Amino acid sequence: MTLTLRPLDPLKDAELLHAWVTHPKAAFWMMQDAKLEDVERAYMEIAADEHHHAFLGLHDGVPAFLMEKYDPAHRELVGLYEPEPGDVGMHFLVAPTDRPVHGFTRAVITAVMAHLFEDPAVRRVVVEPDVDNKAVHTLNAAVGFVADREIQKPEKKALLSFCTREQFLAATGVRA
């Protein structure tokens, strides 16, 4: 299985993303009622933002997941924790499918984390999933994330969690 990432094209990829983010399995993405134009606008804003980047993940060349990385000192977590040098924030979404592959989502988060740690400046990955998203908490723990505390964001109560390069390596054996 080959998982790769390419920069997201907000206009070319909007229709595909719209189908993903409005699917019932993507409830925690909080775009259930989004129109195609809303998705285009949201990802055009990300494309124009120097502190936030979106990537389309490919499985053997076929679009299969979305990954966003952001600078938590400037986006998402401003004022909610004390960022450290080398912190990078991350979101990921696996495309809905009628034929789930066992272990695929774990392979995706592992590939996403390896990609983030390929940058030597990244020392720690920060995530803030919804406290009720138990499935992602389990996946996060599997790749080395340690929950820190619950925080209140404007749109949700989130579980602030961190993963260092060393914790990722210890959990997965993957050296990035």
Number of strands: 7
Q: What's the CATH H-level superfamily name?
A: Gcn5-related N-acetyltransferase (GNAT)
Count of runs of 4 or more consecutive helical residues: 5
Mean pLDDT: 94
Structural class: alpha+beta
CATH class: Alpha Beta
Largest sheet: 7 strands, mixed
- Taken from the alpha-carbon principal axes, the silhouette is globular
CATH domain topology: Aminopeptidase
Distance linking N and C termini: 18 Å
Q: Any idea what the CATH architecture is?
A: 3-Layer(aba) Sandwich
Beta content: 25-35%
SSE order, one letter for each helix or strand: EHHEEEHEHEEH
- Please tell me the total number of domains: 1
What percent of residues adopt helix (DSSP H or I)? 25-40%
Provide the gyration radius in Å.
15 Å
Unreliable runs: none
Main sheet: strand order: 1-2-3-4-5-7-6
